[in-house]
Structure formats: C-alpha cells, structure tokens
Amino acid sequence: MSSIQLDGSHTLAKNGGAAIGYQGRKAGRTTNALFLADNQGLPLAVATPQAGNQHDTFELERVFAELCDLLEAAELRLEGLFLNADKAFDVSSLRQACARRAIEVNIPRNRRSADWQTDDDTPFDPQLYRRRLVIERLNAWLDSFKALLVRYETSLQNWLALHWLAFTVLLLRKIAPPPTS
Predict the structure, then answer these.
(1) Residue 89 lies in a domain
(2) DSSP, residue by residue, 109-120
(3) Do 157 and 172 form a contact (C-beta atoms < 8 A)?
(4) Can you list the positions of beta strands (E) in 59-125?
(5) Long-range contacts of range 171-177, CB-CB < 8 Å, 24 or more positions apart?
(6) What are the pLDDT digits (tens) for 127-158?
(7) Residue 54 structural domain
C-alpha cells in the first residue's frame, strides 16, 4: 500500500436519530462519514459519522486521528504513505496531522482558502492524484447497498456496523473468484 484516498459522503437520514443535521445542498437531514480507501478502492476505515450540517473538515484532526488509529490497530504502517484528497481537505490541520504521522499529503491547493498563497511550495503530483478516482468508485459501490443509500437506522452504531458489513462484502467480492459453471 503506497497511497490512501480520503473522501466523505453525506447520507440522507429519514428517521432521525444521532448525528443528523440539515444539509442545504441535499435539501434534507443528513449524516456525514469520512472514508479511507487503498489504491484499489477497497475500504480501509470509516470514522464515526457526524451531523450532516457540518463540513467534511469539521473536527478533521480528531476524525483523521480516529481513521489512523483504525489503520494502526490493523497493523498497517502509515509512515511514508501518500494521502490523496480533494480541494475541500486543503486545510492546515490535516496537513499538520499528516506531517506528525509522516504521511505525505497530495492535495491540490484550494484557492478559496485564506492561507493558500503562504504555502505555494507545497508539492502536488497530478499523476498520483488521478488514483483518487477509486474512492469515488467506492462511494458509488456503497450506494448500491440500499441500507446505506438512505439512513433509516436511528442508532449510529447500527448504521456504522452496516458500513463495516458492506466493507466486508466488497472485500469478499474482490478476493473470491467468481463461481464457474
């Protein structure tokens, strides 16, 4: 594993429950979850979901630490990894958190950010950034699980457990050969 991909997903929540907030872009109450995937688009970790009225970078340092702790618990080395994320994640708190863990950040500069001109020497590799497509594909795969497409679970732990089940199914699909007749 040479690089990891970071992205978030807002899910409509129909029955209320924990970690729900109004998201104007979705015109409804949503829950936001952040995911890490490997180069092949296999999910590695999901952070505890947050209310959807918050941006993906809300409490990002805590959420990213949670994601990294899950990877370290699985005995995956983080030092020297490259992290791909979109412009929304171009915040100094994520860059600093990655530097503390010796993770190389590959995020395009967000020109709307207040400090983009001060760190113009930040390296960015467009070839590596193209690998980010796999996490977008992961989000599409997760949408194929109807229990995850719209959140009907009121318990946050149950909804999170459904994500882990979906991750397991995606892994089994990847490693199990298709049956031959």
Answers:
(1) yes
(2) --TTSTTTTTTT
(3) no
(4) 82-84, 104-106
(5) 171/42, 171/43, 174/40, 174/42
(6) 999 999 999 999 999 989 988 888 888 898 99
(7) 3-175
